[in-house]
Structure formats: C-alpha cells, structure tokens
C-alpha cells in the first residue's frame, strides 16, 4: 500500500446524479469550498459543455480560491470518427480551464459496440487521441474506465488493453469503475492484482458504486491491492444506491490503515463538513452514517451502559473526537446536562455550578425537541432560551398581532411580482406602531413589516439581513398537517447567527424564527451581554 | 465456501437497539411473520428474562406458526461464581421454550476483567457450563463471541480459547462478533482463516456492525473464508451505524456467489418484505438501500439512458425483478431525449417516432429545471407536461383567483388552532364557485377550499389525500427572496403520485403542486388516458 493515495471527490458531478438531488451554482460553489476545507486532493466540478450549469460553475471557479484541492472537469473522449481537435465537447473541457480533466471511456466491448456503436479499435484510438490532445494542451489527464470490472470478467484482454492504451497515451491515473456496482471486494482485489501485473507502470484508481452494499469495502480492497486513487462522494450521494462514501473511505484508510490521506485537523472537521454539505443538498444527514452520523457513537442503555461507564473505549472503535463527532448516551439526562454546560461555556455563560439550572434547561430543550425544535444549528435561539432561564432575556418590544394575506398570482396586474402583504403591530414603551408591507412571499413581507415597526426605536436593525432560510417538514407522512421547522440565518455584515421556529404553519414557524433573530441581535448588542458569534462559526 | 449458510436474523433483538426504534409485541409478532415469509433460517426474538416485552413475545410465540424459520432466544452465559442451574437468567432462557438459544459471551480479556470483573478462566467455565446445561435440556446452542476481532488483534490466544471451549462444550455455531464494528474485510478474512486452522471442527458465524461502512463486506469475507452462518438485521437496523443488512448479505451470497441461502420465490419478495417491515418499525425505508431501495434501479444520467434504451442490462448489475424491485427512469436536466422517450414509455406514451416532440419536451424540461423545477421525483407533473405537449392535457376547470390570510397565533381565542384561512374561486362550465376554509396553515386551508369548490363537479376527488409534503428553498443564499420548490405526494388509497410547484412564495409553490395533483388525478381517471401508476412504483 502506498502512503500517498489521492482522495478524489465527485459529489458535484456523480453525486448530483442522485434522485431528488439538485444543486444550484451557488450550492456547488459552497460545497466546493467545504470540500477544500476538508482538504480532498481533487474536486470534480461537473461536465462542462454537456450541462449548462456546470459550464457556468467552471466559468466562476476562479472565485473559489481553493487552498488545498485541485479542480477537475469531467467529460468524454472524442466522438467516433471525429478528429479530436474538431470535437466540441473536448473543446468545452479545455475551455473549462481546470488543471485536471477526467475522461470517461468505455472499457467493455459490449458497451462499445451496442451503446457507442463503434469498433473496439476506434474506441482505443478515441482514448489515445483525447488523452494526448489534452496533455499537449497542458492538462493532467485522468481516465475513468467505465464498466471495467464487468469487462474484466467477460473480456479481460480488452479491459487490460484500455488501461494500457490510457497509460501509454499519458494518463496520470486510470480509475477502474464498477459502474453498475455489482462487485464484491474479493473480485476487486483479483482484478486490481491482474492489472498491476499487466500494466505495471499505471497509477490505478477505484470508482465504486454501492449496489451490493460494498462500495467502501471495494475501495479499500483496491487500495490494499495497490490502487492509489479513490473516488467517491460526500455522504455517499449518487445514482441508484449511491457512490462510495468518500469520507468513510478516507477515514478508514487513515484511522484503520494509517495512510494519512486527509490532514488530522480536517479529519476533526469531518462531521461538521458532512452535515454542512447535507444542508446544501437538502438531503437529511443519515443518523447511522459511519464516523459522522449523529448516532454513530450513540449508545442505548443496556448491556453497554455499565461497561461504557468503566471505559468508553470498550465500546467505541475509535475516539469520536478524531472525526469531530461525540459519544452520546441515550435515555440518560447526564449527557444532556453535560452538553448544555459545554454549550453554555462556548456562548460565554458559566453554568457549571448550577445543577438545578442545568436540569431545568435540559428538560426544556427535551420538551422543545419533542415538538420538533433543534438547537444543533440554532445557537442564537438556544442562547435566548438560556437567557430566559437565567432571568436575563432582555425585553425590547411586545407583538400585539400580525397577519399576512397571500393573493393568487392570477389576480396581479401589470406583471407585478409582489403577491403577499403583511401587517405587524407592536408596542414599544407603551406606544403602538403598525406597518403593512408587500413582498414576494409571506415571510418576505413579514420581515419587511417587522423591521419597519421596529426601526424607529432600534435603528441598528437596519444592518441586519437574512442570508439563509431553510424549511424542513417533520413527520411528513401526514401531508399538509405536518409540523414545519424553519431555520433562519442572519448577519449584520460582521457576525452571523441562526434561529429556529416550529409550527404547523410554515409562516408562523418563520415568524418565530424571524422574531428570535432580531431579538437576539438586539440582546447581543446590548452592553451587558456577549457579542454575537463571528461569521463562519456556523458555516 | 459451503452451499449451506445459515441466515440468522436479529432484527427483533439487536435491530431494536437502534435509536428511535421501539417495537411493540404486536410489531414483533408481525415482523416475525414477515421474516418467516422471507424464509430466513433463524429468527432471534429477544432476550427473555432481561426485557419483559421479550419474555411475553416468547410466551406468545406458538401463535406464530412459523413455516420456515426456527426461533432463537438470546441471553448471556451464567453469572461469575453462580452454579448454572441456579442462574435466573439462564432459567428464563430455558423457559422461553425456543429450539435454539444464542448465548453471548465475552471473548476479550479486557472486557472479562474490566466490565465483567472476573477471571479469564472463570469466563471459560461460564461458557462451558451454560452450553452443556442448555444442551442437556434439549436446546441447540449458538455462541456469540463478543468483541472477538478486537480480542484476536490484541490477545489472540484467549480469543481462540473461547471458540475452542464453546466448540468442545457442544455449541453448534460460534459466531465471531465485530461488536464495535471497526473491522475491514481483509482483517476478518485473516481472523477466520486463523480460527479455521486452530479449531477446525467448529461451525463459524459472523456478526458484523457497520461502523466502517463494511458490515456487508465483512460478512461476505467471513463466508468466503469458511464461515457458514451470517447474522444481521432487516434494513441494517441496529445501534450506532447499524448491523449488517441481512438481506443485502443474503442476496449477495445468492446472486453473486450462487449459494442459495434464500429460496428464489422469497428473494422475489425481498423488496416488499423490507418495505413492510419498515412500516412496522416506522423508520422510512432508505431509497438508496442495495437491492430493495426505491432508487436502487433508478437512472438519471443521460449517458446511461441512451444505453439503457439499447439494453437495460448494460446498466444494471442484476435484473431488479429477481428481488421484487423495478427499473425506473428519472427526468432531469442531465437527461436527454432518450430518457424522456423511456419515461414516456413507462407512463404509457409511445414517443419513439416523434423526434420533434421529444426535442420540444426536453427543451421545456430544461427551461423549467433552470427555474427550480425538478421532475425526477414528480412523475405526475411530468405526465401533465407531456400531455400538454401532446395537445392532450384535459381541461377540467379555470381558477378565477385565490387568496389566503394567516393570522398571528397571538390573536386567536379559546386556544383555537386554525391560524389560516383560504378563499378559492373557480369556473366550471361557465359557473363560478367560491369557498373559504380554515386550516392550521395556509396550504392546509387552500387544500380544503380547493376540494370544496371542485367536489360538486368532481366528487371522485373525495378519495384523494395528501400523504407527503416537502419544501426545498433553492438558492437559499438570498434569504426570504429565495425560490421555493414544493413536492406533494397524493394517494387515492390504491395509487400514489407526486407533483411539483416552484415560486418565490412558498404558498404559491404549494398551490401549483396541489392544483397539478388534483388535475393529474382527474386526467388519469378519464377513460381516454392511462391509469395512475400503482402504489409501490413510487414507494
């Protein structure tokens, strides 16, 4: 095994093939930034020329300022019977301007003849020509040998010819793809062994899918057999059953086999980064995900509990802090109090001496969580709760009432886009103020009206802007009767903070979070209380 | 490898350790029946004597009338320093009356000394005594060697002593447990090889957890090295990251290694049974689960779609019908004409001959997706779009206008929960109808009002219910100005379908999806058009 194994992330390209996963350009830019924080070696950004959004992503890629990772564009070899310099798709790959281009090529005769409708020899020429052309234009070229393992099983010679052709033409990596995902580790190992013998000079990679539940194990087996490049996606996103989970693979290589593919400090951020990416894909993070799942180090009371009290390592395969995760004991309020104490400390409140207060806060958090609240991502709402229990939530205004009206777009005239109207009435120092504002939706209109009634007394709120708004339906099996959770992230340009609201009504849930956001800012700017958390602390 | 490998299911015992999973006795009885339909060899029902619910389950087990599976009770070896015939917990195991008793025993010196607080030799005596006693009382005894692999790595001799002691005392199976789940397949194989050499007579089993993402692969590796008994849970339920998914393991053994652990007819029921069990655990079935997930044979990529049109086997690792699943095509901006043609075919429209129509539909899908629509999860909206382009979208009613009013909860009296009111006006055959309804949110109120104005002309809509409602904020970097996408799943009890709506306003987006849902149902129920897709096709 080599100590230098590439970690190649394809979340933005192959991961985006997952059912229900659709990334905007803004999402792709943010995720690329998070992957760079994780310090993966390569980020495959998409297929320029084939997908307009991906072309635009690469056009904006210089804004990313990646510190650790190298950007790769994915595309196909030239078309059959077309000179490589005349191939538009190949031109789009060059135009993407990435240091690396990863070419997908057929390596299975059946696919060459039936899907590509050309000859095996023309396919080899397509591979050779495209690699040489891109190399001559200054690109590092990686080759994804599609259906390699199926081809190896049925027409081994051709499979090996493809690897040899790519290697001779100058491909830096030949990634062997289990495109249909049907492999098991023993077969992967056998195939990689054979390729190492047949094409000893090639740097081999592994691209696995999880159709047998063995994507991670297949990647590890390939590395154990000599591959030095692993491809995968964050949270195992991908078509069908998903790709290999790149974090699980890298953490296994580092923590089980001692390879050091990710720097220690970014391994310690693995849980946070995996969860942050799941916020952008809007696919809930899997609680049972290896290493980074919220249940990955959670123990239910029973056989394990007494042993864990003796020594946590008796029932943990690694120290969860190594991957930024935490051991949790379920059905035990001890863990609850401990984390509340820690969280309070993080926010500048020393709660260690007050067991009664800790118990009260723990009970209230549990009650609110049972109603759908979550404070993991909503520090500002948690801090307001803590202030309330400490008797220190400052009082700035009373809401008398509010309402919103949403009008059918069909009734709007002159192409007017505002379709919602909100009225908010508050009382400040005995004086009532009312305002009505229009917006492109009820939350937008409420936000405007609320600021308007407060701005006379609290002009500092003019600096506050909403930067993120997330909606999650909880218990979605009951249709529109479901409970809605809204998370709102706000900023004043210097700091950012997140608040949460829960209600049957999406507008009411948003209102609760909006209100908390402004109250938090007013409280945090009061002299007696700590400043808001710096921007990035919630990223 | 042996052709006769036990499939041992522990969903009802180890699976129930999962966070958030709580099974009633009725649930356990139903799940046991489903496991028997699947024809697993052994069903571990629980821990009698330790968990009252489990004691009662075994007391009622004769009601199960199992046709294929054998019931096992799980428990521990006798306590240190207690005669086996005086041990209450061992007595409860006998009282459960099962043909098989599976004993868990420590096999790691550190655990024996620190958690059990006894000596390594007393631990061996506990194993020997308990196996002999239960065997003498007519039970088949299996032994779970807890922490076997960790012990093998640190104090190999003792680990092997435990297996030898169990084998000599008459245990029919010794299952090697990766209790903390930290193993990789190559290490499992190495350990099983060593045990086969040291204790050649023992029948070995594998009990894997998924903490490295390798539970399935570790089970397969053990079988390849000579184990003939695999333990796991349906859907991989279990503490932390879960146990080995017993179905994925068995299907890999059968369909990849040709072992025949499950009869062919029950393999063909695998998807249905896995989903039925997830209804009883109330944990939503994972779409990306190998073999049985609803996405396991779903294809999105344009690259794949054109090849699938030629031959579906080019992009499938098995025929999905072998496991009771189905191939599905997803529509997305990555998809070209080929996937639209295939999707049309799936929905009952022959579009093959009409290149111009296919191009028009592809262009429109791409345009809508650039505005935030997604069709890969919204077949019904896609079908309506297709009907429009075919000139066949039936016309049922015109919306004149609609509005909703949301009132602050603060103004409600008598604890009234309805905080939203909606008014909808439609025109049907020249006649205007208007209705106003209240609801716990704007979408709920709009849904009620819309049905009320339509029910006179279309009484069949009374059968339609919303079953799922999902909200996604797109480009959420712009706060409440962001675009909102809503997916609504509806059912009439026999079929289910999903529609999509996109707008700046969450209520308007919901309205679009609601409207499509009812129009789709009316269209699908018209004689001239195909019936809605059966339940399960979208499960």
UniProtKB/TrEMBL annotation, chains A, B:
Q: EC annotation?
A: 2.3.3.21
The GO terms describing molecular function are: (R)-citramalate synthase activity; 2-isopropylmalate synthase activity
Checking Pfam families in the record gives: HCS_D2, HMGL-like, LeuA_dimer
**Keywords of the record:** Acyltransferase, Amino-acid biosynthesis, Branched-chain amino acid biosynthesis, Isoleucine biosynthesis, Transferase
**What positions does the domain Pyruvate carboxyltransferase occupy?**
5-269
Q: Name one GO biological process term.
A: isoleucine biosynthetic process
In what pathway does it function? Amino-acid biosynthesis; L-isoleucine biosynthesis; 2-oxobutanoate from pyruvate: step 1/3
Stored InterPro entries: 2-isopropylmalate_synth_dimer (IPR013709), AIPM/Hcit_synth_CS (IPR002034), Aldolase_TIM (IPR013785), Citramal_synthase (IPR005675), LeuA/HCS_post-cat (IPR054691), LeuA_allosteric_dom_sf (IPR036230), PYR_CT (IPR000891)
Q: Which PROSITE patterns match?
A: AIPM_HOMOCIT_SYNTH_1, AIPM_HOMOCIT_SYNTH_2, PYR_CT
User: Which reaction is catalysed here?
Assistant: pyruvate + acetyl-CoA + H2O = (3R)-citramalate + CoA + H(+)
Q: Does the keyword Transferase apply?
A: yes
Q: Its family?
A: Belongs to the alpha-IPM synthase/homocitrate synthase family.
Protein name per its UniProtKB record? Citramalate synthase
Per the UniProt record, the source organism is Spelaeicoccus albus
- Please name the taxonomic classification of the source: Bacteria, Bacillati, Actinomycetota, Actinomycetes, Micrococcales
């Amino acid at each position: 095994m080599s100590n230098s194994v590439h970690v190649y992330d394809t979340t933005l390209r192959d991961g985006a093939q997952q059912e229900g996963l659709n990334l905007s350009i803004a999402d792709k830019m943010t995720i690329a930034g998070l992957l760079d924080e994780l310090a993966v070696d390569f980020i495959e950004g998409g297929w320029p020329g084939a997908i307009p959004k991906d072309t635009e992503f690469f056009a904006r890629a210089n804004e990313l300022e990646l510190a650790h990772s190298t950007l790769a564009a994915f595309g196909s070899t030239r078309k059959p019977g077309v000179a490589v310099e005349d191939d538009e798709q190949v031109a789009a790959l060059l135009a993407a301007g990435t240091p690396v281009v990863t070419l997908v090529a057929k390596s299975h005769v059946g696919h060459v003849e039936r899907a590509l409708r050309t000859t095996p020899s023309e396919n080899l020429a397509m591979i050779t020509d495209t690699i040489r052309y891109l190399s001559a234009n200054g690109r590092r070229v990686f080759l994804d040998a599609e259906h390699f393992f199926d081809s190896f099983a049925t027409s081994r010679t051709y499979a090996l010819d493809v690897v040899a052709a790519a290697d001779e033409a100058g491909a830096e990596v030949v990634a062997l793809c289990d495109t249909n995902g049907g492999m098991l580790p023993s077969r992967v190992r056998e195939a990689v062994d054979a390729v190492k013998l047949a094409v000893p000079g090639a740097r081999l990679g592994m691209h696995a899918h999880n159709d047998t539940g063995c994507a991670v194990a297949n990647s590890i087996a390939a590395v154990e057999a000599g591959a030095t490049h692993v491809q995968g996606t964050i949270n195992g996103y991908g078509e069908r059953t998903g790709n290999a989970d790149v974090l699980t693979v890298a953490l296994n290589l580092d923590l089980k086999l001692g390879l050091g593919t990710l720097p220690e400090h970014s391994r310690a951020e693995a849980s946070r980064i995996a969860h942050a990416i799941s916020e952008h894909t809007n696919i809930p993070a899997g609680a049972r995900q290896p290493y980074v799942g919220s249940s990955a180090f959670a123990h239910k009371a029973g056989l394990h509990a007494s042993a864990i009290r003796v020594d946590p390592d008796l029932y943990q395969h690694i120290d969860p802090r190594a991957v930024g995760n935490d051991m949790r004991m379920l059905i035990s309020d001890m863990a609850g109090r401990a984390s509340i104490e820690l969280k309070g400390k993080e926010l500048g409140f020393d709660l260690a001496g007050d067991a009664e207060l800790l118990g009260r806060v723990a009970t209230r958090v549990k009650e609110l969580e049972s109603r759908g609240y979550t404070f993991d991502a909503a520090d500002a709402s948690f801090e307001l709760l803590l202030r309330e229990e400490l008797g220190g939530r400052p009082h700035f205004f009373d809401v008398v009432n509010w309402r919103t009206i949403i009008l059918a777009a069909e009734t709007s005239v002159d192409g007017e886009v505002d379709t919602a109207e909100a009225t908010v009435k508050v009382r400040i120092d005995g004086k009532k103020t009312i305002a009505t504002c229009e917006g492109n939706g009820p939350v937008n209109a409420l936000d405007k009206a609320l600021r308007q009634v407060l701005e006379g007394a609290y002009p500092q709120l003019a600096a506050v802007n909403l930067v993120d708004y997330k909606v999650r339906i909880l218990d979605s099996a009951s249709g529109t009767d479901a409970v809605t959770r809204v998370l709102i992230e706000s900023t004043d340009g210097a700091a950012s903070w997140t608040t949460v609201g829960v209600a049957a009504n999406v507008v009411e849930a948003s209102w609760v979070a909006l209100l908390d956001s402004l109250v938090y800012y007013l409280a945090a700017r009061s002299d007696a209380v700590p400043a808001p958390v710096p921007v990035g602390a919630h990223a």
